[in-house]
User: Fold these one by one.
Assistant:
Number 1:
Amino acid sequence: MATDAHEPIRHLRPVSLPESYDLCDHSVRKHYRDFLWAAGNLPPETRRFLNAILAFAWRANRLCDIHLDRAARYEQLEETREEFRNNLMQEVQTGEYAAIVDTVQRFRIPQQYIHDMLVAADMCTRLEKFDTF
């Protein structure tokens, strides 16, 4: 379920894997219009996997929204971590998380790369400087 940056992301409903990829596609169409043009020549399946990564990147990036108070940003960060962790452990498939987990596992992407997006969001939430790539 795609949410606005000012809505809590709690209580995501279980979804099928195809539904999860559809949610990612919708998120990318809504937030990354430039990517749609750049990825136009990619095979649809490849584009779909990239959309999963971009949807998660957008979710991590929106945690730095300065219009939310720090406590709200931190709460959303913890919810994002928990949803990702639950999907990784295959406890449930929810929202866009099922697609990113499937993409990570399918292409053997180190989970640390995904966690690094959340670490950066955490540092942004805490208004810390960071020296990571």
Number 2:
Amino acid sequence: MSTASAGPVLGVDTATGRPGLALVEGDVVLAEIAFHRRVSPSRTLMPSLRFVLEQLGLELGGLAGMAVTVGPGSFTGIRVGLATLRGLAQGSGKPLAGVSTLAALAGSYAGVAPHVAAWLDAGRGEIYAALMRPDSGLGSEQVAAPSSVLASLPAVPILFVGDGAMRHAPLIRARGVAGDAIAGAPPLLAAATARLGREALAAGQPRPARASYLRPPDATRARA
């Protein structure tokens, strides 16, 4: 199985409301760019990548590998990111790792709190959610009503992160567990995506770059 060699890793997130890309080498973020949220990533991803590579004096062939968020999140955004990164990986011969959007979100706060609940707004009054524990890493991912997710959480202090946590902040505060906290604006996930991808590629166990929606797209539901 292909593993990453020495060099920067490209991380791309187009699954969330703050899409972007980053180049990470070791623990250093060489560059990170946020895309305009009102412009489709299909129009901004490649120009942004060309700009970053040019500014750093790099080419795709000089990368160690690539990583992309595979969901959950925006159905259209996920498809754009996967299609683009698959093409780049195939054309450059570089390994590509898929990264859970929730893992990238929780990973952005690694070391900040022992328990981190990653919540992304899923619409229809639901959230995409997963809990990162200090002893077992990221738990199972689910899409459910926030009240249902809260009822399943352990009675320990938890840091809630993501746009889903901000939207349902009153419900979280009503949980009444001392030490619970809600992070501010969700971070860009591109750098965390690159780091997680690099770790998976170095271990020779990259997640396949396949979409993980957690629920079928609206068009599929309508046909059903």
